[in-house]
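User: My collaborator sent over this chain with a note saying "see what the structure looks like." That's all I know about it. Can you take a look?
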Amino acid sequence: MPRHALRAGSTAVAVGLLTLGAAPAGHADEAPETLRFSDYGKTVNVEPYTDGGYTSPLWTSAVNTSSQPLKDFTVTIDASAFKGQLSLSASDTPTPCVSRSESVLVCDSEKLDDGRPVPPGGHMRGIDFRLRTLAAARPGFSGQIRITAEKNGAVIGKTGIKAAVADIGPVTDRHGQDVSGVKPGAVLGTTAGFTQYSARGLDGVWVSASLSPGLSFTKEFGNCEYGDEGYGSGARCYVETPVEPGHAYDVGSFPFKVDGTALAERWGVTVSAERPSYPELSHSHRGDGPRLNLSERPSGPGLLQRGGASASVQADNTLDLQVLGTSVDGKAGQVVRAKLGVRNNGAAVFRQWYGSDRGDDPGVIVQVTVPAGTTAVDVPERCKAMGESGAQVYWCYQDVDDTWFEVGQLTSYDFGLRIDKPSALAPGSVKLTRPESDDNSKNNTAAVIVTVDGKLGDGSVPAPGGDGSTGGSGGSGSAGGTGSTAGSQDSAGTSAAGGTGTGAPDPAPRGSMASTGAGPLAWYAAGAAAVLATGASLFTAARRRRAA
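Assistant: Without extra context I'll predict from the sequence alone. Here is the result:
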């Protein structure tokens, strides 16, 4: 062949060989895996709730399996398989990741662990991210989220997470409105609606309605059972109506009355594909009215929300909680019984606990100050000392088994007080500290008086109320008590020293209801005050020693 043809042929072969050896355009080179990611062993179901936004954080981390420190790399989280179904975002604040699109996050190692290299065998800082359903998400849609680590254009580690748009059936999308200033006797109604968030339809749905103790149903539907839920009244209904996938429906209203004992009340309505097993109804009966129905809503779904529809009802009603003190007499060294208490005079029933569980965040707290000259040697289980042993101040709360403080109910606190120094005897007190006030604050404080031979100590101060009586200026009384000459309670509730005394009356029948709402816990504040006072005393003593 001619020389110029040979040169051209060799050039073409060289170019061809280079072309075959080049990496495809737009793809990172594969390199030895130096980051080994942890794998998710299950599919992540993304639920369609837009009130809370995103799912709980997902998390990914990796180990440097090489023999060299690793730095200057990126981690990409790619949910493009869910485009139009889910959105992706970083959950850390500040975040080491940047959103490239609605479905892609890129995280720079310079922002992980403040740019420190990942040592051999060490863990890369975990990356948190969240997923959220979009309006067009289809229940049951599934795919994989790809996680890739790259350095200098080469892949150094990868993994995947399986995910799916949850198929969960009825989801609440229409909610109730809170109301306040409602007079007892008023009649209101519930408001609730749902979307069938599923790829399948239903032949009917179960509807449950719950009312707190201060509310009562005024109309009973024929396809519902009514009874006591243990913390109020409830209804269980089966509505036999075809429910189509993706369609929205309103639930017929449950009319209810605001009763005379109402104060801070609540109603709730839930919809489910299966018969609810909790809470159970006791003393149930079938309604005898028209049928409860659903009505399809042409406008489509509203705001999707976890749980059912609910609303609060604040009644314009009165509440009078009265504390009861006592007066007891004894001898030096004797232990006398001081039975104190708090009673609900009405007209409203009051919530005992505001936390998620009974015993969490009390609604009623009584502060007991032990009389000077005595020591509390026997303290009720429901009372906690503020300070160290030998404390003179206690916080007392209600029975954990009760959630509602019924009208006429009395909670008593039986203290055993030892008379240590008769000459120092001075009145103590019992005071309602939570709620901070009610409609009759005059009886929120009462005296706790301990005497020897009917006498207080030298220099004692008047009892709370200003006249040495055992009750507040708006009322007096004792929760009962026995001692050497314990106080007794007459029919008007006025305490008088002398006699053998009477035991505390048994508390009135109590109701119960699941706790809702929230509020600050008084125990923490009181404990903090005690710690600050102790610190101040130690600081003052230390300064005096230095001065000496």
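A starting point for your reply to your collaborator: Residues 1-27, 464-477, 480-548 have pLDDT under 50 and may be disordered.
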